[in-house]
């Protein structure tokens, strides 16, 4: 599962801790240098030194011109200078604190943009942190839980998110983008902190809005916004809205985002002398593009002792794309302070050479050392350092892992929203601000992002084997341009698209001109990867195709589920089925079934689609919905609407069930390409695709399977009808089928063997992606 695992290092950068999943990986936390007689360790240090040298070359030094052009008004300069001075003042006065810390890392996984939400891995931790300027920090882990639902929630994944949770605050560091970002000066190793010395080389600053609020004690706090914009958009710089207490100059609220997505291959190539992907070219192409984007980061602070603004909550939300895999991720942290600058008794932490040397041990050896420590007592202890060897940290972890997983300091369930800890409702306004920041990212066109031909290759009964190439180019201010060119072998056609869009990281509005091969299907993805494999290997193409030429205006989520809106004007034409080659035909002579004969004409209209998903616990209640509304006029006038709902829940100890109900109808004279078609993998299994079709339909599916979602055996039964709306209440004999199947990775991959009941009684096999259950 390269997708989700590749995101853990990015989250580690945000936290400033090390991450391991299943296999050893080097801990990137800063530590004192120790002499270790290990040639491999020495070689690693040499590589790190070379990498650091290459990074230093990328640092831009602030010049007099930068300083003269960085501020749009004198107030902005004064506010930034006051903020830098206030940080130094607070750091000199802060002596100690005692706090409780909670954090949660969530990583999802999907193979389709329309896929339902699912958790690949969730890691939660609670701790008590005591810090003293003259003694260091002592951390006791009070709760820790790893949930991997695809592996039954236990045993399938081994996770190490370092041995210490994020330190809430440390003098000289701002907790922007996690502790790893915030240095006093712009670093050669990290993203550019807009408050750091020399950041004027990367950013421009302007004053924004103001606000005030009253504290419970009656004190009124007045805030002023500093708007931070990058000089040149790239992933290493941020676009931010920073709010400061005008009286003290301290940061009170921060909302920001990456100004551009990160190209992971490109970043790896910058830091490595060799190619970042040393696998065969085909494998590297299949894993491309490999990008990550963080459109939402929020940090909120709380006032303590009337003068110390310390972080209260932090949230980072983003997504990555690794080939056809989509990986959403979220990092949440919250802190509650028991005492600030009070009598916090912290025994001085002393770091020994043995503590440092233990970092070179293999993962298996570390596990053995920990087991030995637990055999001797109830805790295992470790000492390490943070923040470039400036903070020694002693960590104590109870050996009773069962008690840690059920700690009252964690949410009652790993699938809870965690509202009481992370305050998700309170940060909705901040998230909206972060998304709006994309509109103000300035800069000219960036280097185009190319979608390789291997990612765009597909096979169906109309085009045969089809190749394409796509490109997307960021234009600045949230705008982007994209284009696509596609050639097909069987029908000798050229298709293409050209469009411009504006995005805020979550939603995108775009206008596109196109010539496409379109699918009339309302279920599945006939033009996707899974359907191409089924058509090429099994000679089974369940798509019904027609050609469309026109233009559209769209509004849709960038990733995942939500509301999709489309206004269109297009011409429809028939597409003949010209392909015949498949492995099934070579073996058994099976041919593709005929395509529909589309009604030709020009039509304009609007379409809405709402995709909903609720529930993350595979054993709890989960619901997936799909609602469509469409209206069009022109050569043919029609309206159509449908609703599709699937609910699933654990029924018995090791058994889960799912039920799907759906229905829809059409008004006016809809052409055949806007009918509903039943039969096949996504509607009634055991019956051929298009066994029934018409302007109305209803559908029911029932499934029963094991609770082990990594590889779940399933039994199922399907029934449905489609035809003229006048027969909706008296449909006659519907079509039906039943069978057995296997669902892998919580429905990401599905294989079914179905026996038709009515009217066809044939046996059919199906292989497809993103199943309901």
Task: Give a verbal description of the structure.
The strands form four sheets. The chain has a 17-stranded antiparallel beta sheet that branches. Strands 2, 3, 4, 6, 7, 8, 9, 10, 11, 12, 13, 14 and 15 form a 13-stranded mixed beta sheet that branches. A two-stranded antiparallel ribbon has the order 1-5. Helices cover 17% and strands 43% of the residues. Mean pLDDT is 80; it is low at 1-38, 154-159 and 178-184. The protein folds into three domains: 2-440, no CATH class; 444-598, no CATH class; 600-773, membrane protein fhac: a member of the omp85/tpsb transporter family (Porin, Beta Barrel), CATH 2.40.160.50. It has 773 residues and is an alpha+beta fold. The protein is globular. β20 and β21 (507-519) form a beta hairpin.
């Amino acid at each position: 599962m390269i997708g989700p695992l590749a995101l853990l290092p990015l989250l580690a950068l945000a936290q400033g801790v090390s991450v391991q999943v299943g296999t050893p990986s080097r801990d990137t936390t800063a530590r004192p240098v120790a002499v270790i007689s290990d040639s491999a360790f020495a070689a690693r240090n040499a590589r790190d030194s070379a990498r650091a040298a290459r990074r230093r070359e990328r640092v831009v030094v602030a010049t007099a011109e930068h300083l003269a052009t960085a501020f749009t008004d004198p107030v902005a300069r004064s506010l930034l200078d006051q903020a830098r001075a206030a940080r130094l003042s607070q750091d000199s006065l802060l002596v100690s604190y005692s706090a409780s810390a909670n954090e949660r890392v969530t990583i999802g996984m999907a193979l389709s943009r329309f896929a339902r939400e699912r958790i690949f891995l969730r890691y939660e931790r609670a701790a008590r942190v005591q810090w003293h300027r003259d003694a260091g920090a002592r951390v006791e882990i009070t709760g820790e839980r790893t949930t991997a639902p695809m592996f039954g929630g236990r045993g399938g994944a081994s996770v190490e998110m370092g041995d210490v949770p994020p330190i809430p605050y440390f003098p000289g560091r701002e907790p922007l983008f996690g502790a790893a970002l915030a240095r006093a000066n712009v670093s050669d190793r990290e993203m550019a902190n807009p408050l750091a010395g020399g950041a004027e080389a990367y950013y421009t600053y302007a004053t924004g809005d103001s606000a005030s609020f009253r504290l419970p004690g009656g004190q009124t706090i007045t805030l002023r916004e500093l708007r931070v914009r990058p000089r040149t958009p790239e992933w290493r710089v941020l676009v931010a809205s920073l709010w400061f207490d005008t009286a003290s100059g301290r940061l009170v609220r921060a909302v920001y985002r990456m100004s551009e997505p990160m190209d992971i291959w490109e970043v790896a190539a910058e830091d490595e002398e060799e190619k970042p992907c040393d696998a065969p070219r085909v494998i590297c192409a299949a894993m491309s593009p490999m990008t990550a984007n963080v459109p939402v980061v929020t940090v909120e602070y709380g006032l303590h002792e009337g003068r110390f603004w310390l972080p209260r909550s932090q949230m980072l939300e983003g997504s990555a794309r690794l080939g056809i895999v989509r990986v959403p991720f979220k990092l949440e942290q919250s802190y509650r302070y028991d005492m600030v600058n009070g009598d916090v008794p912290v025994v001085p932490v002393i770091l020994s050479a043995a503590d440092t040397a233990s970092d070179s041990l293999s993962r298996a050896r570390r596990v053995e050392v920990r087991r030995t420590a637990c055999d001797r007592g109830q805790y295992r202890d470790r000492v390490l350092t943070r923040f470039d060897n400036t903070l020694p940290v002693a960590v104590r972890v109870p050996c009773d892992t069962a008690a840690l997983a059920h700690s009252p300091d964690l949410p009652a369930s790993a699938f809870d929203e965690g509202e009481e800890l992370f305050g998700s409702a309170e940060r909705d306004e901040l998230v909206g601000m972060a998304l709006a920041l994309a509109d103000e990212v300035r800069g000219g066109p960036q280097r185009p992002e190319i979608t390789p031909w291997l990612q765009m290759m597909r096979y169906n009964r109309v085009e045969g084997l089809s190749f394409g190439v796509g490109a997307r180019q960021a234009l600045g201010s949230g705008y982007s341009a994209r284009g696509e060119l596609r050639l097909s072998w069987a029908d000798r056609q050229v298709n293409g698209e050209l469009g411009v869009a504006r995005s805020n990281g979550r939603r995108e509005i775009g206008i596109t001109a196109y010539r496409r091969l379109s699918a009339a299907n309302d279920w599945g993805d006939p033009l996707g990867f899974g359907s191409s494999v089924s058509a090429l290997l099994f000679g089974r193409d369940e798509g019904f195709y027609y050609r469309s030429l026109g233009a559209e205006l769209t509004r849709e989520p960038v990733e995942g589920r939500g509301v999709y809106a489309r206004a269109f004007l297009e011409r429809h034409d028939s597409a003949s089925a010209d392909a015949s080659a498949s492995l099934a035909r070579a073996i058994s002579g099976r041919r593709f079934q005929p395509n529909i004969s589309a009604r030709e004409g020009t039509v304009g209209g609007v379409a809405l689609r709402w995709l909903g998903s609720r529930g993350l616990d595979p054993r709890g209640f989960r619901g997936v919905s799909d609602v469509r509304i469409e209206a069009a006029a022109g050569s043919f006038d029609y309206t159509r609407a449908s609703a599709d709902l699937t609910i699933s829940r654990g029924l018995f100890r090791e058994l889960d069930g799912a039920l799907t109900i759906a229905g829809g109808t059409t008004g006016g004279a809809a052409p055949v390409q806007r009918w509903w078609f039943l039969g096949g993998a996504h509607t009634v299994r055991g019956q051929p695709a298009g066994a029934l079709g018409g302007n109305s339909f209803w559908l029911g599916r029932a499934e029963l399977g094991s609770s082990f979602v990594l590889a779940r055996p399933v039994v199922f039964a399907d029934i449905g009808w489609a035809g003229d709306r006048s027969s909706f209440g008296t449909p006659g004999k519907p079509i039906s089928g039943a069978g057995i199947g296997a669902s892998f990775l919580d429905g990401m991959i599905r294989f079914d063997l179905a026996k038709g009941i009515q009217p066809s009684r044939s046996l059919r096999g199906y292989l497809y992606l993103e199943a309901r259950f």
